[in-house]
Specification:
The structure is a single chain. The chain is an alpha+beta fold and 163 residues long. The protein has a single domain (6-162), classed as TATA-Binding Protein (2-Layer Sandwich). The chain has five helices and five strands, in the order αβαββαββαα. Strands 1-5-4-3-2 form a five-stranded antiparallel β-sheet. Strand 2 (60-65) and strand 3 (70-76) form a beta hairpin. Helix 1 (6-34) packs across helix 3. The N and C termini lie far apart (36 Å).
């Protein structure tokens, strides 16, 4: 096992930043397919339905901010995915993430190490039309405690499964 010297921590943090940028760019290329949806329903009905869906997916709703029109829900992984879906995400993403991040990138195979947060922006387009924008954010508190800055961008295939 590699000793966590300040240099190693700096290398790991840079690897995580490279992977975060790579995954964010992937989101931006495909956001219409996986992050944004137009729903033929009122914003109020959509928010109510989203609260129920988040709970069904094992995510606790932290709150609704009416000023920013954002619903926030979170839990530890693999939620909102199943453990089998998480394993597929690792299979699909790990090789590319290691290419981008280099030898210092660590893809945690135990999803319980990740705190998963969904931020859902709800934008009213009219009385019966609403846009939903999903941001899927991850954190690894255990790594933060030792000075690492984990990627905050979820793997693109995890977003595809979640959406």
């Amino acid at each position: 096992m590699t000793r966590l010297t300040p240099q190693v921590i700096a290398e790991m943090n840079e690897a995580n930043r490279r992977v975060s940028r790579h995954w964010l760019l992937e989101y931006q290329r495909t956001e219409d397919l996986f992050r944004v949806r137009v729903v033929e329903n009122s914003a109020e009905s959509v928010v109510s339905a989203l609260r129920k869906v988040m709970n069904e997916l094992g995510l606790a709703v932290l709150g609704w901010d009416s000023k920013s029109s954002e619903l926030v829900a979170e839990n530890y992984g693999p939620n909102p995915l199943s453990i089998d879906e998480w394993k597929v995400v690792i299979e699909q993403e790990e090789t590319e993430a290691r290419k981008v991040g280099g030898p210092f990138f660590v893809f945690e195979t135990d999803p319980k190490e990740y705190l998963v947060q969904l931020r859902i922006k709800v934008v009213k387009l009219g009385d019966d039309r609403t846009v939903i924008v999903l941001d899927y954010i991850i954190d690894a508190p255990r790594y933060r405690r030792i000075g690492l800055v984990p990627t905050s961008v979820a793997p693109p295939s995890a977003v595809r499964y979640a959406y």
